[in-house]
Amino acid sequence: MRGFLFIAAALVAGMTAASAQESEKQERLDSVVVSASRAGKSTPVSYTMVNRESLRQTNPINSLPMTLALQPSVVVSHEGGTGIGYSKLTVRGSKGSQINVTLNGITLNDGESQEVFWVNIPALTSILSGVQIQRGLGTSANGAGAFGASINMNTAFVGSEPSFSADFSTGSYSTHITTVRASSGLLSSGLYLDVLWSANTTEGYVKNGWGNSSSLLAVLGWLKENNSLRLTYLRGEQKTGITWTGVSLADMARDRRYNPEGLHYDENGNLKYYRNHTDNYLQQHLQLNYTHRFSDNWTWITTANYTDGYGFNERYKMNKKLSAYGFPSSFSYGNVNYKTKGDVIFRKTMDNGYWVLNSELKYKNDRLNAVAGVNVSRYSGDHYGELLWHNALGDGYDYESLNNHDSSNNWYFNNGKKKEVNVFGRGEYLIVSWLTAYADLQYRRVRLDMNGIDDEDDLPMDFGTTWNFFNPRAGLSAEIGGGKLYASVAYGNREPGRSDIKEVIESNNLEGGNRKLKPEKMVDFELGYNYSGSNFSAGVNLYMMEYRDMLLETGELSASGYAIKDNVDKSYRRGVELSAAWQPSRAFGLSGNVTFSSNKILDYTKYYEVYDNLDDWGYIGQQTENFDKVTMLMSPSVTAAAIAEWSPLLNSACKALRSTKLSLTGKYVGKQYWDNTESSDRCIPSYFVSDASLTYELPLPLGSLGLGFYVNNLFGKKYYADAWVYRAFFQDGGWYQEEGVFPQAPRNFMFKISYKF
Asked: CB within 8 A of 269, min separation 6: which ones?
């Protein structure tokens, strides 16, 4: 609580918020491609800008979600406890599948799960020139509907001169990061080439939570007069130890670094980790963009994109029956049959492709700024399983003979296809010199088809449907008192994800039901005021996000043990976001933000399974717990952040020392509940975490040499930032609980040396 009071006091003193700032607008053609889905200074939505310099100054181990942790209403966590590997980000409590993420105007959300897996694109902070975070429904975006926030990213613009940079970082938990970048600059012919390569390795904080990732960015472009042609290739590859189970509270009390995933007994009875108990993914993006400026008023932007993804998780499990991996009841192999149990190594694989064509036409004059566009996309994803080894069969068995489905060596195979057409038009009209009207209309048509056999119980998951969504937005912004006053209302829809539909299909198949999921709907009201002066800025934003048919896990399980999601009739997220900024001198600045919110479900029913006893686990039925109003899981009512930056030698007589900068940051996150019961024994306690950095840049005859020392979790706070829980009851009134929490690393360090010209 002391950490929160520190941040609140700093706000009263008048600290900064990036939320009221907009990075310097670039009018060059190579930047136009990303501007269509971005909010401008007159757009009546709440957003923050994170510029290239801010991205570069963060700790080199941080993934992009960790880099954005200090933005308003943002909460982040990391499965492995550090920054390399799987990271999660929520905005106003909205989870990853509800956040639309675009890169150069093309959505990165997976077509089926609607998630963005940040680990698949390492070193994003080195690649990007800027990030805009819109909170709420925001402006129209391509791909999965923004249902709580949107993150708009663009790769760095071409510089006018040749450049080169190399960063080498090392730190705690055997972490090593190398990033090299070279650019030709804009040549007289209009051609330019920009290449970046990054490699990251770590043993991780959590045991067997190691990571090995790399990324490659190559941009070949031509920029001449009113034309821009750009070919972008982005490749991300990662291999990480599996950490997604978390750890129980009891195990964490014994060992905060404990990880149950991959543990097994060897032939001598020793407990050890299977080193290749891993998650693996390779993702490649190819984008071709053409931009043409017809006149000072008219600009046309077209982008074609193909994203290829292939990956698998390989796992070692003990005491598993052969029948679970596609072996028929007639199977026999010596003394082995389909019921034989033993240790097993298997893979679950994804192989997908995503095609996009996006075209937009922009018009701008003294009073009107408008854009209209169409986006067409197709996603196809295969899912299949491969049995690699079972100790009852041994090394000599022909595992390729397990051709039960559509691909060799599979015990299951299924496919999902998603097609979308997205048409939108948006405009801002200057009614009078101080008042701007805003309107935004979007139509989405989404077709989803699924077929094949799932990995559990050999059940079919055939499904097909079409959704039609109309998403209108409108608002006003006014220049008053040296600042901007704005108000907007927006209506949005979002379709269920593949996993949500899959569980319902299998529940209906097993139980003979006819359960159907409805799309989620939301009305978002935003009202805010931003003021910006010469050395002080401040902002306040009030929001009401009113949901209908929100999809939430109820705790109810199907007969096969699946967690079922269902539509909740009414729920809401309401809050106020405050921010401020104070720059009393060139050498010193303070910044911060705080969000107070209420995140409630109305008329909620929680389901629990009931069994006969702990020994037999004979299923009896279910019992319920009803709530008139209850707080949503993983939705803190208070979040806050503060940043202090000091250049103590800015006025030094020695010019070489003037670039020295010391930064201190703090993040406060209020209590979060593991599930939707608001139970005090199932919650993440509030926490306050501080980071610090000391950076220095030495000018050289050619270029400059940079040094950076970074401390994460400065005061060694022992906390966990994410959790899940399962609870069942027995006939005699007793209960059983499993949980997984995700401890974050205590104090840890990184050191960076860099060179650039």
From this structure: none
pLDDT digits (tens, 9 = 90+) for 535-582: 999 999 999 999 999 988 765 555 544 556 788 999 999 999 999 999
Closest to 720 measured CA to CA, from 688, 684, 747: 684
| Angle at the Cα of 673 from the Cα atoms of 671 and 677, rounded to 5 degrees | 135
Give the CA count within 13 Å in the CB-facing half-sphere of 448: 22
**Contact residues for 523 (Cβ-Cβ < 8 A; gap 6+):** 489, 490, 491, 545, 546
Which helix (DSSP H) or strand (DSSP E) does residue 547 occupy? Answer: strand 536-557
Burial of 338 (0-12, 13-18, 19+ CB in 10 A): middle
Confidence of residue 83 (pLDDT cuts 50, 70, 90): confident
E-strand stretches of 156-266: 163-171, 175-183, 191-202, 211-224, 227-241, 263-265
Torsion, Cα of 258, 261, 266, 272 (10° steps): -30
Q: Dihedral through CA 680, CA 683, CA 684, CA 686, nearest 10?
A: -40
Beta bridge partner(s), residue 699: 704
Q: What is the mean pLDDT of residues 107-114?
A: 83
Q: Given a cut of 80, is residue 256 above it in pLDDT?
A: yes
**Which single residue is written with the structure tokens 């694989």?**
349
Q: Measuring CA to CA, which residue among 515, 526, 557, 376 is closest to residue 44?
A: 526
In CATH, the number for domain 2-756 is 2.40.170.20
Between CA 217 and CA 214 the distance in angstroms is 10
Alpha-carbon distance of 234 to 219, in angstroms, equals: 9
Locus of tokens 């068995």: 397
What the block records as the tokens of 236 is 């991300």
Tokens of 517: 């999921």
Residue 600 CA to residue 606 CA, distance in Å, equals: 14
DSSP code string of 230-258:
EEEEEEEEEEEE--TT-B-HHHHHH-TT-
Of 303, 501, 523, 474, nearest in space to 418 by CA: 501
Q: Where are the domains of the chain?
A: 2-756
Nearest CA among 85, 108, 279, 86 for reference residue 200: 85
**pTM for this prediction:** 0.91
Question: CB-based burial of residue 735 (10 Å sphere; 0-12 exposed, 13-18 middle, 19+ buried)?
Answer: exposed
Q: pLDDT band at residue 732, thresholds of 50, 70 and 90?
A: confident
On the CB side of 272, CA atoms within 13 Å amount to 9
pLDDT digits (tens, 9 = 90+) for 423-474: 999 999 999 999 999 999 999 999 999 998 887 667 788 899 999 999 999 9
Cβ atoms of residues 740 and 248 within 8 Å: yes
Rounded to an integer, what distance in angstroms lies between the CA atom of residue 388 and that of residue 386?
6
b/e 130-160 (16+ beta carbons within 10 angstroms → b): bbbbbbbbbbbbbbbbbbbbbbbbbbbbbee
Report d(CA 320, CA 454) in Å as an integer: 18
| Residues in contact with 369: Cβ distance below 8 Å, sequence separation at least 6, in sequence order | 40, 42, 363, 427, 428
